[in-house]
Amino acid sequence: MSFSDSDSSSYGGDYKNFKQISRDRLLHEMLRSCKSGDSKSTWKVLIMDKLTVKIMSYACKMADITDEGVSLVEDIYRRRQPLPSMDAIYFMQPSKENVIMFLSDMSGRSPLYRKAFVFFSSPIPKELVSHIKKDGTVLTRISALREMNLEYFAIDSQAFVTNNEKALEELYGDEENSRKGVTCLNVMATRVATVFASLREFPHVRYRAAKSLDATTMTTFRDLIPTKLAAGIWDCLMKYKKTIPNFPETETCELLILDRSVDQIAPIIHEWTYDAMCHDLLNMDGNKYVQEVPGKNGGPPEKKEVLLEDHDPVWLELRHAHIADASERLHDKMTNFVSKNKAAQMHGSRDTHELSTRDLQKMVQALPQYSEQIDKLSLHVEIAGKVNKIIRELGLRELGQLEQDLVFGDAGMKDVIKYLTTKEDTTGENKLRLLMILAAIYPEKFEGEKGHNLMKLARLPPDDMKAVSNMRLLGDSLDSKKSSGTFSLKFDLHKKKRAGRKERPNEQETWQLSRFYPIIEELIENLSKGELSKEDYPCLNDPSPSFHGTSHGAPVQQQPAAHSMRSRRTPTWARPRNSDDGYSSDSVLRHASSDFKKMGQRIFVVIVGGATRSELRVCHKLTAKLKREVVLGSSCLDDPAPFITRLKMLTENELSLDDLQI
């Protein structure tokens, strides 16, 4: 029986991304390690709690688990049928309640299972280990007792969340004391630290410093959120250094800790990628999309749940593409499929170039022999069609242009007022989002009666005013240059209006409405170049002599020649492009990991209070650009509607300074 951490020090072979390593640890180190001795060929029961079942489901498929010898998955808190001839694998949090349930299962003369392999998702307190050791009968039935140190949801190949969905409320809300906030940060610190334990990485830790507007202003709990999280993660890492075999002694990667106050526009503005548009406009439940499929024997259409995830090659190829680009590519794929299949051509009398994407979809669906090949493509044609229809119906292109012009200082208060008075059919949510962007750039316009008058003009209820006023609770950004407001402001000398972002002359705007970028893009690039301000983003640990500033990434690719954005070169909404064949998406899966073979050291960015899909997109973009895997972590991944709902739940009263524990 082993009371040790599960050893994952060597992965060997090709470079594996963050999610692949997480998956391998669960399947190989945990499940496969139980195939030993007389347990080698027997089927097993896998028992998990509510958190660990999600950890497993984000990283692995049920088929993967079955392949490792698991025939049954159970909830530790449900009454279970005794299976005394089978072995059980417990994967659970190290809580007192879980340990009590485990002991109840395995104690006495008639235990539920023959043997138990026990794996904890994070470090188990000594008192709980002692509690387990006290029961002699249980002890003889334990084949393994280990700390997996894997307590996060791998929601993407390069992203994880700690499942702290109430972090915004607990850290920024109106509390008489900071106990909830401290508890939240402690949980986050433990879970983020397990990421580094899983990957055997020891980070050079940077965090966003608390910065008061002047020397007389007291630092609040909210100001210190990144500082406190950095300290909590560091404490966990120091323990790992002592307890985990082969844990690195010197820095192997970089970690940047931020909070939601660093960029208040990113969670609200319309992001025009296929992924973001699907989640923003289609009321999806997580990654689940409900598709209508033709009914059997000519009956009414049936509803079918599908998952938009990395195993879908079309989704993998298109998710970070602009919605217009994605639509063009889908049409090209359908056209090429039809043109290369004579049977398909016989179903259509017109030239394929004259057919709409919908016509092409119907044509191909009529061919049963191609149903398997075309299912994914047909699904995305339907989804893109729905998204584009909603964009037209809601007039989102014009709104999106105004949003981006506001952010870059090309539009101001008058333009917003004109829009609100002429576009009265705009939805309440979209009006609110527009006003929130305005408040992030012009906070003084919402002071006192001014804010109420703007809300009246937009015909928004008082409840929506909470979302605008509560933006102040997120605190100021380091880029703020005015004491009158608490929002992230930047100034361009060539523009009369205030801007929330500066232009980037080296970035070509290929598609309309693709100018916007989240602040973390600048921060990550500066971090990688060794140019991130040490005053604004101090180091928790001075790097070792072997850790050099900019040498851990491959050479950055040459940027295209700069052009002036002032010339107002109009990008096409859906410009024609050279298309690949209908199934080239499969090559995306085949080569997904080949790009990682010559990677530099990883960069981890953790955002407290929720990350956005635009920030996830940037991490993928910069991974290719910097030749360093950029992994995004957060308390949760938020779309605009749930973020606004969380914001409304906050109030403006400051925390009591007596309760602060620095």
Which features does this protein show?
six-stranded mixed sheet; disordered N terminus; 662 residues; six-stranded parallel sheet; alpha/beta
Task: Give an account of the 3D structure.
The protein is an alpha/beta fold and 662 residues long. Helices cover 40% and strands 11% of the residues. The protein contains 24 helices and 14 strands. It has helices at residues 18-31, 50-59, 62-67, 96-106, 126-134, 136-139, 167-172, 179-199, 225-243, 274-281, 313-318, 323-339, 342-346, 357-365, 371-394, 396-407, 413-422, 428-441, 449-457, 462-469, 519-529, 585-590, 613-626, 640-648, and strands at residues 3-5, 44-48, 70-75, 87-92, 116-120, 142-147, 153-156, 159-161, 203-207, 253-259, 288-293, 302-307, 603-608, 630-634. It has a 6-stranded parallel sheet. Strands 7-8-14-13-10-9 form a 6-stranded mixed sheet, sandwiched between helices. The chain has a two-stranded antiparallel sheet with strand order 11-12. Helix 10 crosses helix 15 (371-394) and helix 16 runs parallel beside helix 18. The protein is globular. The model is unreliable at 1-12, 477-494, 549-571, 574-583 and 652-662 (pLDDT under 50).
